[in-house]
Amino acid sequence: MGESSRAIAALAGLSHGGVQRIVKRGNADAATD
Predict the structure, then answer these.
(1) Per-residue pLDDT for 10 more than 80?
(2) What is the mean pLDDT of the chain?
(3) Number of compact structural domains in the chain
(4) CA-CA distance, 20 to 7, in Å (whole number)?
(5) Predicted pLDDT of residue 1
């Protein structure tokens, strides 16, 4: 159980980081345009 919850936490962290990166890139693109 501990391993699966850790994997879920890692996936959640990765997806959250990816969303932040995409949002940041989108804001930068909007600023350049």
Answers:
(1) yes
(2) 78
(3) 1
(4) 20
(5) 58
